[in-house]
Please model this.
Amino acid sequence: MLSLWLNVLASGVLLGLVYGLVALGLTIIFGVMRVVNFAHGEMVVFGVYIGYWAVRLWAVPVIVAAAVAAVVMFVFGYLLETLLVKRFVNRPHHYQFIVFIGLSLLFTGVLLVTFGPDPRPTASQLSFHTVSLGPVTLDLARLQAAATAGLLITLLGAYLKFSSFGRSLRAAADNRLGGLVVGLNIPRVYAVTFGIGAACAGVAGALISPLFDAQPYLAVDFTLLAFVTVIVGGLGSFSGALLGGLLIGVAEAIAALTFSPSMKTALPYALLIIILIFRPRGFFGAKEI
Amino acid sequence: MTALLDVKQLSKSFGGLVAVNNVSFALEAGRITALIGPNGAGKTTCFNLVAGALRPTGGQVFFEGRPIENTPPELVCRMGIARTFQIVRPMRDMSVLENAMVGAFSWTTNVNEARSTAYESLESVGLAGKADARTDQLTLPDRKMLEAAKALSTRPKLLLLDEVMAGLRPTEAAGVVRVLQRLAEAGLTILLVEHVMRIVMEVASRVVVLHHGAKIAEGSPSEVAMDPRVLESYLGAGFHA
Amino acid sequence: MQKRFEGAPDIKPWLAGAMVFAILAVAGALANPYLISLMTIVLLFTFLGQSWNLMLGIGGQLSIGHALFVALGAYSVAVLDVKYGISPWIGLLLGMFIAGCAGAVLAWLSFRFEVRGIYFALLTIAAAEFARIMFSGWEFVGAMQGLFFPAPTNAIEFAMLRGDARFYYFVALALAALGIVGTELISRSYLGYVWRAMRDDEQAARALGVRTFRHKILVIAISAATAAVGGGILALVQGSIFPDSIMGMGPSVDVLIGPVVGGLGTTFGPLVGSLAAIPLNHLMGALGDSLRIPGLNNIAYGIVLVLVVWFLPDGIWPAMVRLSKAIRPPSRVWLPQPRKAEE
Model:
């Protein structure tokens, strides 16, 4: 019984790290630009399709697919910000929301036109391999996804903390005007931020492609999951995104074990509602939105 | 006779910073009192404490004998204290008249009654002719007076004005002074927060001086103007030179 | 003195509105069945758009999970009618009550700690999604299999709100008209003034004695209750409801497209926007089906939304009004009579 629980907990933590990476992308964009990317799930699904293509058609390892996704999605995010999103950064939230809803419909439509509505499984040989650590048995695909996500989160955290560009990102997040005064190139900071956010989503998507079938309609679920994760952690908070991801991952895993499968998907929302009752700004939320 | 507003040992600190320190004063009904002091003296904090926008860390505020220091701003307003904002905040998409109507809905739900009250408020600040203008068409002094009209529509017993003269030219300020004097003659009690001392001397019958969050003087304008501590701290050493 | 400020009744918009609805009524009597059913959906989403518009356009509160309230109305009607044979009229009332309470609770939860703006919006969508998942697993309301109304007959039964497509067209038309009149009445009442003040600047509104906490709860509860009415009728029109089709992200987006495209906070915006957007969606959907390209309607909707917010941020209706004012001589534009003339 104990080993069962440990297994569930471990797989929850592993998936939670990937959720954390997805949420991190959303929270970085929000923290710096005060924009909520409602098309974040579509960016995850782009990553899943990149994973699908790379693994199924070019037969490269998932980890290479993730690297490809990082580059492709960074460029995609950077261009999207420069061409479109920057026009809406200073508009009220509901306009931004509508633009992103439009984008998410557009992206889903493009995926539907390109790949069709049917799910496409990315059968990686990793999914069938497991490793045992004492009583805990983990499948390699999940372990690899979590390890990569964890590594990326750490690297990104270090980058934001120690590099000069990371510092200017944080300066822009703290005070847009202040950033302008000290001569930050705000448009570039925003574009890079959006690129990083999109890349986080894309990499996470590629990493989980062995676990989830590629399907256009998956995007909504990922968007909502990312929202829940960042609200639980606190919108705009780096550590909050990570904590939220772990919490949601573990909660889902436990729910899958103890409740019906439909409860598994409901639990993050239940968790969110409970958090909002007791800690409305999440664990590390900003004071004023 | 009890004072209309009685501030007793009011204190407010933000973290370690003491913005208002043990300030007491009382307002007599039907008069204009000014709260003055140099930048950072705690005037606006004090003002926000009275208006209910901030909660004090110590002390009490009585309005008509009732404690109000923990009352939220909307209820403070409904008790009869109306305020203006230092940064004027007209509501976009609404005409000048409609802006002035909002305050009236604190005591009526009748739109026609609110409209005529709003009109009277605009009239008393000299804006009646611009009732149908859009707020972005108003000049700065007009917008300041619109703020006052919005507050007047709530039918206050006490009007709190936050730096209504700031940024106005002397002739414009003189117009505001006349409006305030008329309002006081009609029986309204007014508390002014001002930085510009000269205008205050003209209009206020009583002056409270704050410096570094504490009250350093109180009295008639002429008394306060003679007070060496006021001259020293408020006007700075340069005054003597 | 009092009399002068009552304001001349603003006849023209009412007249224009009445004419539009007269034309729609005649059209309903003549048009072919396909157009009738399409227009029924347009009018229902006009009404739902009005409900959403009341909350954001006038009350300043963004909901992106409005499908929750729509679905609560739909399920109230469906459960009572399908399972117990109770009239949808009762179901509509029950739906209004349940959705109103749900909206109020959600608002209370969020605004209690002065959590507002985007957090509240995210909360609405989370609540909608939570409800969708719960309803998907709840056997009593049909779970994933949904609920089916009895097959439509051609006999019109007013007490059970049952009839043919044309009957529902006129129900939807009446509802849309009611929505427009209701929005106009609310925005001219004291609630309209107070809510718009709250929308523009909450701190300033509070300083003027507006009890924003209860007004925010009120506007959300009213919006939710009206959305439930639209949802109840939508369920009857569709003849069946499923959690995925009425509670998901999709219907939440469908609700807001009309007012956004047509014009936020305006009375006629949701009608104009729904008239523009929904036929486009159906057209592209049909085109996609015939070409075997799913997703064309998504692409069309997406592009329209982005372009409208980009180039017509006020929406189509205000742009039409500006255009008509530019064409007409200014003297014909009605203006409230200023008192200045008498001084």
Summary: Strands of chain B lie at 5-14, 17-27, 32-36, 58-63, 66-67, 81-83, 158-162, 189-194, 206-211, 214-219.
